[in-house]
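ok so dumb question maybe but i'm new to this and my supervisor (M.) told me to 'just get the structure for DUF4402 domain-containing protein' and walked off. so i did the thing. is this what she meant?? sequence i used:
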Amino acid sequence: MKILYCFILIFLPTSLFSQVGINTTTPLDTLHVNGTVRIVNTNSSIATKLMGANDNGTINEVIVGQNLALTTGTLNAFGSASYGIISLSVTDGPVNEEFNDYDLGVNGVNQDKTVFRLTGRTNSYRFTGIEGGTDGRHIVLLNIPAVNFRLENESTSSLAQNRIITLSGGFESTSGQGSAELVYDGALQRWFLINLRN
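this is what came out, is it supposed to look like this??
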């Protein structure tokens, strides 16, 4: 009986906390391989995860998203390249009403939207800045009402990081319905108007 207790005391903790090292005498993880690794999987099911190594060489699993497929070792992207669209009602008010640091939710609730259908105005209005820009963010503003919509150039009415550069030196506006396409430059911290259509 004493031999059985000795056996349990020696081998049970070792088996619970043991580490295996291949080409190393000091393993740092449960399995530590110093060299190349090959994993053979005979399972024929569709792969749903990838493996990747972090800066320390530790292998971690990476989940394959909805628009990606891993087939016979090749990662393929598929799906739609269409833009997300949302209609937003801009508060109606006086002629040429100014909207400063306007929150479209581009970095929040509407981060998956590119086209913003601006509705609800019966009088002309203007934006001096748009809140929440991130580097490379692309948006299209569709002015749906038959009223003028204006974008102010470098207006100090909005915070610096929310301002718009029209590239003309002055304001740009639609004559009634129209669209404005903007891209955010993270280095300059400004929205750039790259296209305007009536």
